[in-house]
């Protein structure tokens, strides 16, 4: 049996369905991220697990115990809020100690646990400081230590890095994962940041309009998106409308006057599809040497990469090329575009997934 399980969990606010029939299993020690845009239901899902929001229907179990109706303070979960919610009048040590005091832990044991938690987040030297004397990253570490010191069965993270600047946010992503692996706490994180979810999660739950549209390992979500929404929300994608042409075991997609071979065989002959190719899977070449010819309309320097907007007969395509020292193509340059056959993905034109969603 899974450690944390959500079975057909649904939440209504009046007649509005915020979360619809969520089914999710989380194994002990696993790091799972709920990923999606604002209003997709990810935070509401987390709050139902925490006990801050009542479940309209469905069931939540933790280590075999039904906690659907349990009060938040009886679930024993560790929670890190977006704002960190630290007590400004308390020192770092007192903030971390607060949960243990509420559990009436003996002072000697409490002091040792606080010391261990601060060492885990590398803040031993800041125990006597106050939140206002800390940087954003340090405050985030205090909030994490406070959540972990009670040794919760599940750690819930609600956009924990959103208040940090870009550089610090990236550093803290990996620090957070490092700490989670060291402690081994089962973790569920809410985020709208694709790179954050993809880089540190064991599995990602992509949510749209209250529904989990794909639950899978990060690499699978990126390389094998189930819908148009996922292909464009998780990373970038060039989407071309086409029709499947099947002759024996060979499959091709007709894109206007162009036909391209595909490996994907999930559609019948004549089906209307979207052919998806990630920008970094496309390559610029000499005209006449690729699948399409076009012209560089714009280019953007991204440091480690160049981004090219290329006008073709099928519309504008985005191509990402590594900045490997070679001169970048100028705007107005005629080019060919090619891509490996195995890098194409076919998506349903009506955005309905091919098969029922299952938790991988």
Question: Could you characterize the architecture of this molecule?
Answer:
This protein is an alpha+beta fold and 360 residues long. It has two domains: 225 residues, P-loop containing nucleotide triphosphate hydrolases (Rossmann fold); 113 residues, OB fold (Dihydrolipoamide Acetyltransferase, E2P) (Beta Barrel). 24% of the residues lie in helices and 35% in strands. A hairpin with a 2-residue loop joins strand 12 and strand 13. Helix 3 packs parallel to helix 5. The chain is globular.
Structural class: alpha+beta
Question: Regarding CATH, which class of the largest domain?
Answer: Alpha Beta
Mean pLDDT across every amino acid position: 91
Strand content: 25-35%
Uncertain ranges = 352-360
**Shape verdict:** globular
CATH topology of the largest domain: Rossmann fold
Our Rg estimate from Cα atoms comes to 24 Å
Report on the biggest sheet.
6 strands, mixed
CA distance, first residue to last residue: 15 Å
What's the gist of this structure?
This protein is an alpha+beta fold.
Primary descriptors:
single chain; 360 residues; alpha+beta; Rossmann fold; OB fold (Dihydrolipoamide Acetyltransferase, E2P); disordered C terminus
């Amino acid at each position: 049996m899974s450690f944390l399980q959500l079975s057909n969990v649904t939440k209504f606010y009046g007649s509005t369905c915020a979360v619809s029939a969520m089914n999710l299993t989380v194994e002990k020690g696993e790091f799972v991220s709920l990923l999606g845009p604002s209003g997709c239901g990810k935070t509401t899902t987390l709050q139902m697990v925490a006990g801050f929001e009542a479940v309209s229907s469905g069931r939540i179990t933790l280590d075999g115990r039904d906690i659907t109706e349990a009060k938040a303070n009886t679930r024993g979960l560790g929670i890190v809020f977006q704002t960190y919610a630290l007590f400004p009048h308390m020192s770092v040590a007192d903030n971390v100690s607060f949960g243990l005091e509420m559990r009436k832990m003996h002072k000697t044991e409490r002091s040792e646990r606080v010391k261990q938690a601060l060492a885990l987040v590398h803040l031993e030297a800041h125990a006597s400081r106050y939140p206002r004397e800390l940087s954003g990253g340090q405050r985030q570490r205090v909030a994490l230590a406070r959540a972990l010191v009670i040794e919760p069965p599940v750690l819930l993270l609600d956009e924990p890095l959103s208040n940090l600047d870009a550089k610090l946010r990236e550093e803290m992503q990996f620090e957070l994962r490092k700490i989670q692996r060291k402690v081994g706490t089962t973790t569920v994180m809410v985020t709208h940041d694709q790179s954050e979810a993809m880089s540190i999660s064991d599995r990602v739950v992509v949510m749209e309009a209250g529904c989990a549209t794909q639950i899978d390992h990060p690499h699978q979500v990126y390389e094998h998106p189930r819908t148009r929404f996922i292909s464009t929300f998780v990373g970038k994608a060039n989407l071309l409308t086409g029709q499947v042409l099947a002759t024996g075991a060979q499959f091709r997609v007709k894109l206007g006057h162009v036909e391209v071979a595909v490996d994907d065989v999930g559609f019948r002959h004549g089906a209307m599809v979207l052919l998806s190719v990630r920008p970094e899977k496309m390559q610029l070449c000499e005209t006449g040497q690729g699948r399409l010819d076009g012209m560089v309309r714009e280019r953007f320097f991204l440091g480690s990469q160049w981004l090219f907007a290329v006008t073709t007969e099928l519309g504008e395509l985005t191509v990402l090329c590594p900045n490997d020292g070679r001169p970048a193509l100028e705007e107005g340059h005629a080019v060919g575009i090619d891509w490996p056959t195995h890098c194409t993905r076919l998506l349903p034109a009506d955005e309905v997934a091919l098969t029922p969603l299952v938790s991988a």
